[in-house]
Design brief:
Layout: E1 4-8, H1 20-29, E2 34-40, H2 48-61, E3 66-74, H3 86-89, E4 94-98, E5 103-105, E6 108-109, H4 112-117, H5 119-133, E7 141-142, H6 147-151, H7 158-170, E8 174-178, H8 186-194, E9 199-202, H9 208-214
Parallel strand pairs: 1-2, 2-3, 3-4, 4-7, 7-8, 8-9
Antiparallel strand pairs: 5-6
Length: 223
Amino acid sequence: MTNQDTHLHSKFSYDGENSIEEMVKTAIKLGLKEIAFTEHVEKNTKWVDKFVKEIKRVQRKYPQVKIYSGIEAKVIDLNGNIDATNKVFKKVDLVLGSFHRIPKAKEKYLVHEEILSDKKRALHLWYRAMIELQKNKNVDIIAHPTAMLKKYEIRLPNSMKKAIVKNAKKYKKVFEFNKKYKVPDKEFLSMLRKKKVKITYGSDSHNIKNFLKSYKKKHNKLS
């Protein structure tokens, strides 16, 4: 079982429900040794300095757990760019790049109907953006990597998995096993492990209730 969780959210995220301190107290109860708060940001986010300051304050109060500051930013185009600024990258410990939508051009995305009507196109656009995301030097971890495909029941071919794994190794990208969405699948995880790509565990918890639930059983194993 892992004692690290690199994907937590607090009230600094628009959909977080608990404070950083409340989540840290829960992490300590769960016996975690390292955690990261990876808050949702956009290019116009203004509170990052306040967020980092709060992380440092709570870290001093609870030295028994290592607390990292981080952001989660969505992919915004087919070139692997994410919705955050260079200024922000320098202020935090970890940067997660993730797909919340499938881009088709700069800051333009496939809508629900477009994905359903042409899943092959959606897959290829996603794949193109994923390959480029791995080249993004500002991104440390690829969060819930195949969640968008799973949502629309789009199968990721082995040939594409192999290319992604090869890129992950080449560009030294870390992949997340995301408990919330249960991705990547076992086959993909096995391929990543075989090539010795680093895998982190992320519960993607947005509140204490979900945080506790993620560790209630032995399903925080990377499997």
